[in-house]
Amino acid sequence: MFDTFNTLFDILRSLLTSNEPIDNEKVQIITSNKSNLLNITSNSPQNPAQRNILLRADIDGIQFDSLNERRKLPRLFIDECFAISDLFQLNEYDSLLLLIEGESLQSNYPDCTRGLLAVQLYYQSKERLSACLAYLMACLNGRTFQSLIKISKSIEFSTNFINELIEQRLIENIIEQLISFQIRNEEQKLYSKAGLGNVKHRRRVQDSIKHIRSFQAKSIFLYSCQIRLTQSHLLSIINYLAKYSTIQDDGIIDESTLYLLGAFLYGITLALTILNDTNIGSSSILTSKHQQFSLQEDQPLSPLEDNTTITTTTSSIDPDLITAIRDILSNDERWIIPELKAVCQLAWAIILRARSHTLPDGHVYSEDIEALADTAVEAHVFAFLSETVIKSSLFQQEEFLIRRFHMFFVDFIYYLPFKLKELRVQAEDTARMIEDCERARKPLPDNLQRDYEYFLELLSTFYANDHMSLHLSEEFWIAADALAGHRLMQSPTQQQVALANFVESAGGTLSAYLYCHYIHMLAGISSTQSSAHACFELLRFAKDTGGPTCWNRIFQAFLLYRNTYRPDTLLNQQPQTSFGGSTSPSAIKTIAPKEVTALIAVLNLIEVIASQDEVSRIGFFEHPQWQITGAFFGLLSCRISLDLKAALFNTLSAFTKTSEIAMHFWKIIGEIDLFAPMENSDMPAIAYEIEEFEVPSQKYTFLKSCLKFLQPIISQQLKTNIDMRTLGYCVVFLVNHVLLKIPTRTFKSIQEKWQIIELVLIILNDIVTNYFSNQIIENDHNETKFVSPGELLVNDLLRGGILNNLLTTLITDGCEKLFEYVSFIGEQELSRSLILIMELLESVTISSQQILQTDKSSSFTFCQTPIERIVTDTNTKDLFPNIMKLIDMIDYFPKLANQALSIFAKTLSEDKLQKPFLRLLPKDHKEKALLRNGIVRCLEFTEPDSDNNNDIDDT
């Protein structure tokens, strides 16, 4: 079973990557697995005859096709084979082969028994089989993307083979298997029969189960992108979404549920589309990363686009399907996730409106459209999409899922303008109600209509991160008046005009209640260079209206706040004016919370634009009236909330992408002594603020933003003749007031803890690297210089100082967390932090040795390098064994494992470390085997070619 599915997997993968013609042998192997592909989670049934043969295998031995030689089996082996067979209701011979394969792999997994490895192999083989089905679906040519294979014969075979599977109820079978093959059910079954081992084995099995479900659902999704689903298919999908959808423990929709939701969206689009053969395969999964498409383009002869008359036949669109979906989505039956029903209702309303001209008696659906849209909005569909759906990791890797939801949002604006206008009116009523309640000091009612707000925030979140460089947000700006002078000869479509009008009209006559949400939306749809520049121009041209969203008004407000709230002297010269003394906090004049929220929203918008578009960045910086340097740095010295200061630092960090601006900022930091100790204190003002406000709250937004600002600016200044005085203050702040405080501080979020550690270590690594490169140059020229911050850091690490001790403690803490083998938010930050620590220790070790070898007369002396101390120090005897264990984490953290292997190799290269190294090697046979296996896999590991294999690996 395992070998069969592995062979099939390798064949399909080579078919997609090599583009070689498919031969008869490969055809035979693929077709012979038809029944397996139809029922992935099902098994060949148990066989009484095989069981009887196995019962006597300890006496008579056993031989069959997959077992070349007759073998006698120990009674314990036979009992384990029956246990595997009973656990999975699996054919006895297949169970035997799994157990034999598991036994052969024990050298790779010495911490698992052969029985546990048989369980692991069972699920891994099913995972491979489900991946094969997804590969096959990627071979289809259809409406949305071109086949991943280029040979016409191979495409023809794949298409015919998939059609045969579909005719034998593949779609319905997959959905039935998704219903029965649930993660919790499988875990309970394994727990009851002792089928789960240690944490590592449990993690591998759980991942395989999750991937089986995900690949199966993805197969339906890929098929729905290309081929019109039948009524049976769509009703099965709707039934699953209604009764069996799941949300993960973190509040995000389950991957299989999201794939099926995407399949429903594509399914209703193609089901109500008159097929146009000239469009089939018009967009490519490989090459068309920037294509724009929507319902309107699926049906190019839309009456909203032109006046072309369309001749249609009722056979093209099944009226029974429309009736069936209408009945399901219009009834009062409650879904297991009610908001998911709202998503389907809104999508159905949009497609009915878009296809009303092609549907038989399309005019009769007008009431349905309004009723469905109203019901969906009442269920807070946009809030659900924002919080539960689009935060899924699939929106970082599935291009056509991203595109379909983009189509969903765009076509809501285009095809349901009446509903959008109604939401805007409700939002204005809500704004007036909020103002009245605040004026009367009454509590806000519970039934406030916030759906327009939710929609704006949904757009903000969805378009904010363009992980796949699809540039979908640019469609909102193509027809913008601000870009009229830069537009190509081709006129924008009516849909693009509607989107541009939405962006501009949404900002008209804004109430204070909607202001922040509109600014958030602008920041979200400004996530690319051209869209950021368009937004910059939009608000620059808005000066003619004098509204609150024009740059002139915005920067005037910042200057006014700076002048109003600036203390008599700088914050770092008189700490008592901000942190204590006789003045009570209530007596200090501060910016109102609502104003702070608005300022933060605007700063975030400026940050996005400045980060994405260099022209806009320089335009901000050089404008004589806006004075961003004076306004922003001035506000940092004012008595304002740390959240606002955090936003200021984030915004300033975006400007450091231009080296000249970064140099200017560095001079200002030195002039105002931003990180220097205050008078009569050894702490800078920023450190006081962190201790006073963030430590009690256990949230460190301000500290993170401060580090985010420092990291690029120091990195750039190290390449020049940097001001060592200012750098020294920064290093003291980073080490004494940030890094060394980590063990004594409590964090509400483990992710935030390791984010802070990572940011500090990036800066310290840059400083140490720069120090060693300058040290070599100075030795070559026989020059001597005063002690630099880099030298202080290196001396501490070479002499086993407090920083060195902290870093080794962090390695131990991080390893303990990772060795739990449980996925958690923050694991990537933890992994990167451990890599940075080990890189720093290794860099100091190698560079210090090189300096001594090249300059024997150097005063640069030390007792032990950091790696020597790791191996020989009795106080950290578990540290090096933990680093060795990291090598075995190649499956989850390949870069971390390779860095641990680098430390391991460096230790082996030192003659004087051989004896202590041998003492630290694991004594237990299983631990030795794990280390050996990890080393081999690290040496064999190669990262995939990002240019050539992205699409294959994603599938």
Overview of the molecule:
This protein is an all-alpha fold. The chain has 4 domains: 1-227, no CATH class; 228-277 and 287-306 and 314-415, no CATH class; 416-549, no CATH class; 749-955, no CATH class. Helices cover 64% and strands 1% of the residues. The protein contains 44 helices and 2 strands. The protein has a two-stranded antiparallel sheet with strand order 1-2. A hairpin with a 2-residue loop joins β1 (62-64) and β2. α33 (701-717) runs antiparallel to α34 and α35 (750-780) runs parallel beside α38 (827-854). The chain is flat. The two termini are 22 Å apart. Mean pLDDT is 86; it is low at 277-315, 569-587 and 944-955.
Helical content (DSSP H or I, runs of 4+): 55-70%
Radius of gyration, in Å, reads 32 Å
Mean pLDDT: 86
How many distinct beta strands? 2
Shape: flat
Question: Helix/strand-derived class?
Answer: mainly alpha
How is the main sheet built? 2 strands, antiparallel
**Number of distinct helices:** 44
* Strand order of the biggest β-sheet: 1-2
Q: Report low-confidence residues grouped into runs of 5 or more.
A: 277-315, 569-587, 944-955
Tell me the span between the first and last alpha carbons: 22 Å
Kindly estimate the percentage of residues that lie in beta strands according to DSSP.
under 5%
